[in-house]
Design brief:
heterodimer, A: 430 residues, alpha+beta, four-stranded antiparallel β-sheet, three-stranded antiparallel β-sheet, 41% helix, disordered C terminus, B: 272 residues, five-stranded parallel β-sheet, 5 strands, 10% strand, globular
Chain lengths: 430, 272
């Protein structure tokens, strides 16, 4: 007689948005793993239709409160690509600076409040703070300065108001940025220490055969621009995104999930993918810290994504500090003339590649929108990680098994709210 | 402090997580709050989850699925003081745009197999379903106002937040009026204070994140906007954003839309 065991994590915690996990074990072997997304669908792509292109940056920000800048960046680049609007060097710089603020805020949050508690069996960052008060206080301050940068440049940290098609509504003055400089000087030292701290965490030996996908750019650590690159060595222009990858719908999820169109296989986007593909473009300090802590490439251990986030925090603080020190205001935006057109863009959200495509009519309204968030691209890979992980914990009780499965999911910092159209984790043991 | 600590819970419905993130964005206060309050349900921040009763429930998001119709009733029953946080919970959010559209076509626009998706045809505010003790406006909320709510409840007093318009905040900040100076569309005169009047300070019009202020004169503002060169359709779209389902914004956008329906179609024009 077959023995069935179901394990269900009703609602995942310390992730953004609503998801669960279902695992089904049949005669002690993994039969089915499903990351369930029960985040209510919000239909952004549908109600973008008929809206003016000028409203898009404000609207798409509301897809995700944790990474609104990412949505704004992919949107403005895609619409500008459609309309043939060039990005001026000054606007380009400000956009990188804005993205640094969001990477800092989002990575510092995940590292300290969401992910670090897993390594010490703590329920939350607040609980972890009883054991590591100085490290958590430092982490919160690292996060706070990211938010302060977003406040000055974006107008506010959550749903910034300063981004527009063609650039920014207003370029901040030098005086507005000046108070940030000493805070970022402190922050650069602080993130180096924070990265050294997380590198000492107990990491399970768990390497996965990932195909990494990220933007890559020869001259900079890619954020807003570049070619799509794979760890297979292939690269493609962003316009080929829909030829290379495809979104599919699963019955257990309100999220669509992406696979490589040719092989039907999952892939991984996010900090681990970026560090592996773009290590050469990482700033000197971050590279030196990586070598110093013995962070070896390729790194295919998803638990070590916390180190990748730390290295990217160093990069973001370092690059932002340089930009703040040398900042000279210039023309904040170029004007755009609408015409019937279509265009796409991908940028690197804190959680990975975020692809947008828009069709625009002569009146400057959106006719059609496609948005592919990082977490829906990672969903299948997360399920695959769980399948590899489960055999080593099968003898554990349901509670331990659920908890470690949640850890495996959390490695990837899934942002479920993000997935416009999106995903649910339950464990079933048959 | 003696006695049991107040029990705080955070619940999410259809939303972007930004308003509950505001609590984690209280970087200077978070650890202290953790000492004064028992955070007993806050999925985004802690794996420790316990059932009610709760002294304070912060509710983010709007009601958009059949399951959530039931869940909000459970949250209400378990909570002493229920506070809605943000435009989704308070007015239905941007996803309330579906209230104006054909739901089936929305589903089909996003999903290849819409039959797998369970959602309601409308997105509605929490107060449409249960009694709400206090509302925090904003898309997103202002974290200072959030702290005011928590402090007030810890001190056993009623929280207070201002209800005047953004317009007044611009005067206080010394921001030049962009309607008067540039004829730009701006909802500042009819939008509730709370954001700090940031948009006009960044050379753009207010787009109404905090919803209607007390007694907004919307018809007058629409007329002014149209005199300044906006089309009726643009005035309608301006109100149909993050607080589209707030009664005053909704009535005015419907009134304008009906007005536009009686007129010949305007030539497409570019925004200034």
């Amino acid at each position: 007689m077959s023995e069935v065991r179901h394990i269900r994590v009703k609602a995942l915690s310390r992730v953004e948005g609503e998801g669960g996990l279902d695992v089904e074990l049949l005669n002690g072997a993994v039969h089915d793993v499903r990351l369930r997304i029960f985040e209510p669908p919000r239909f952004f792509e549908a109600f973008l239709r008929g809206r003016s292109i000028h409203e898009v940056p404000d609207i798409v920000a509301r897809i995700c409160g944790i990474c609104p800048v990412a949505y704004q960046m992919s949107a403005v680049h895609a619409i500008e690509a459609a309309l043939g609007v060039p990005t001026t060097p000054f606007v380009r710089l400000l956009r990188r600076l804005l993205y640094c603020g969001e990477w800092i805020e989002s990575h510092a949050l995940h590292m300290h409040l969401l992910h670090a508690p897993d390594f010490f069996d703590c329920a939350s960052g607040i609980e972890l703070a009883q054991r590591f008060p100085d490290q958590l206080r430092r982490g919160l301050r690292i996060k706070k300065h990211g938010n302060e940068l977003l406040d000055v440049l974006g107008g506010r940290a959550i749903h910034p108001i300063n981004v527009r098609i063609g650039g920014f509504h207003r370029a901040p003055t030098r005086e507005e940025f000046a108070p940030l400089i000493p805070r970022f000087e402190w922050g650069l030292d602080a993130v180096i220490e924070a990265t050294r701290w997380v590198a000492t965490f107990p990491f399970p030996d768990f390497e996965q055969p990932y195909e990494f996908i990220a933007l890559t750019h020869p001259d900079e650590y890619a954020m807003n621009e570049g070619r799509l690159a794979s760890s297979t060595g292939e690269t493609w222009p962003v316009e080929k995104f829909a030829d290379v990858f495809e979104e599919r719908q699963a019955p257990h999820s309100t999220a669509l999930h992406a696979v490589r169109r040719d092989s039907g296989t999952p892939y991984l986007v996010g900090p681990l993918a970026r560090i592996n593909l773009n290590f050469a473009q990482l700033c000197g300090v971050a590279q030196a810290v990586a070598r110093d802590i013995g962070f070896e490439l390729p790194c295919r251990n998803p638990f070590k994504a916390i180190i990748a986030r730390g290295l990217e925090l160093i990069h973001a603080y370092d690059e932002a500090l340089t930009m703040l020190r040398h900042y000279t205001p210039d023309v904040a935006h170029v004007d755009v003339a609408p015409r019937s057109s279509s265009g796409c863009a991908a940028t690197e959200a804190p959680r990975g590649l975020l692809y947008h495509r828009y069709e625009i009519n002569d009146a400057g309204q959106i006719e059609f929108a496609t948005i592919v968030p990082p977490t829906s691209q990672n969903q299948l890979q997360i399920e695959s990680d769980l399948r590899s992980w489960l055999p080593r914990v099968l003898n554990a009780g349901d509670e331990t098994l659920s908890r470690t499965c949640e850890n495996v999911v959390r490695n990837h910092d899934p942002c479920i709210s993000c997935s416009t159209h999106f995903l649910r984790v339950n464990i079933q043991r048959n | 402090m003696s006695g049991p600590r107040p029990r705080l819970a955070v619940f999410k419905f259809a939303s972007c997580d930004g308003c509950q993130l505001s609590l984690l964005d209280c970087e200077d206060e978070l650890l202290a709050l953790g000492e004064r309050l028992d955070i007993v349900h806050f999925l985004e921040a802690t794996s420790r989850v316990s059932d009610g009763p709760y002294d304070i429930a912060l509710v983010e998001g709007s009601i958009t699925t059949p399951d959530d119709l039931t869940r909000i009733q459970e949250v209400r029953r378990a909570s002493k003081f229920l506070v809605t946080i943000g435009a989704c919970a308070t007015a239905g959010g941007i996803q309330a745009l579906r209230n104006f559209a054909d739901h089936a076509s929305f589903l089909a626009a996003v999903y290849a197999s819409p039959q797998y998706i369970h959602s309601l045809a409308t997105s509605t505010a929490i107060a449409d379903h249960v009694r709400v003790d206090f509302e925090l406006r904003g898309c997103p909320i202002n974290k200072t106002q959030l702290l005011e709510v928590i402090r007030a409840l810890l001190g056993d007093r009623r929280p207070t937040t201002p209800s005047h318009s953004v317009c007044l905040d611009c005067k206080r900040r010394g921001t030049v009026c962009i309607i008067v100076a540039h004829g730009a569309p701006c909802l500042g005169p009819v939008t509730q204070s709370g954001c700090g009047a940031i948009c006009p300070a960044y050379d753009r019009g207010c787009y109404g994140c905090f919803g209607p202020c007390v007694q907004p004169n919307l018809a007058s503002l629409s007329a002014q906007q149209i005199r300044n060169g906006a089309s009726i359709a643009e005035a309608v779209q301006g109100l149909r954003l993050f607080n589209v389902n707030a009664p005053e914004f909704r009535q005015e956008s419907d009134r304008l839309a009906n007005l536009a329906a009686d007129l010949p179609a305007p030539e497409p024009r570019q925004r200034p």
